Amino acid sequence: MTIETRIMPFERDVLFDLSGLSPEEQSAVLAEFARQEIDAAAAQNKAAIGHSVDYETFIDGAKSNRLESVSPAGTIVAEFDLGTDLVQWVWDEVQKHSPVLTGAFKRSQRLFADGVELDGPESIPDGVEEIVIVSVAPYARKIERGQSSQAPNGVYEAVAAMAAARYGNQANIRFTYREPMGGATELEQWARAHSAREDGAAKQRRQYAKDIRNPAVVISFR
């Protein structure tokens, strides 16, 4: 998944005295400045998340790593791929903090990219705007309320808070309640049965709308 984000934007006004330089020399000056900025951003990324981050450079709008090929009045843009690392980290933390008895709760985790269920972070396509990680287990709310000795602080809200502290400058990460898409899940079956106990169609609909929403981590890319 390529989510184009930057810790530090490169857009800034910089004055160069290029008088007397040939076009090739002007391009070389601009390329050297861009190289210094890219190296600084790469170092900041590595310091923030603990490892190097892949990036691509675009020279005058075309993908290229030949910085010196920039035209004297052209542009150099570096796009760092931080989205994959972010989603993988959140997914792993949800798995790690999930209580384990039979393993059913871990297996109940689902990942949705713009409303489409995927197998995991490695399957996320380019250009995704929203990621939702949510469980389809009917008892997920109880776990989130701390009713498991293995997760006294819940799972999703705690992971969302940690992720926001770690990656908050790259995406909007929040804890909320969401309905898993697609239907035909253990949660849906339970929600229908539970809401059917209510007296009257209106109350049943309200109860179902509440029951079908489970704790979730939502990641919205800027």
What's the layout of helices and strands?
Layout (H helix, E strand, L loop, with lengths): L3 E2 L17 H27 L5 E5 L2 E2 L12 E6 L1 H15 L6 H4 L1 E5 L2 E3 L11 E6 L4 H5 L11 H12 L3 E8 L7 H10 L5 H11 L2 E8 L1
Walk me through the structure:
There is one protein chain. This protein has 222 residues and is α+β, with helices and mostly antiparallel strands. It has 2 domains: 4-81; 84-221, no CATH class. The protein is built from 7 helices and 9 strands; from the N terminus they run βαβββααβββααβααβ. The strands form 2 sheets. A 5-stranded antiparallel sheet has the order 6-5-7-9-8. Strands 1-4-2-3 form a 4-stranded antiparallel sheet. α6 (186-195) packs antiparallel against α7. The protein is elongated and about 85 Å long.
Q: Within the largest sheet, what's the order of strands? A: 6-5-7-9-8
Instruction: State mean pLDDT (0 to 100 scale).
Output: 85
Tell me roughly what share of residues is in helical segments: 25-40%
Count of β-strands: 9
Series of H and E elements? EHEEEHHEEEHHEHHE
Radius of gyration, in Å, reads: 23 Å
Number of domains: 2
Largest sheet: 5 strands, antiparallel
Question: Beta fraction of the residues?
Answer: 15-25%
Number of helices: 7
Judged by helices, strands and strand pairing, the structural class is alpha+beta
Low-confidence stretches: 1-14
- How far apart the termini lie comes to 15 Å
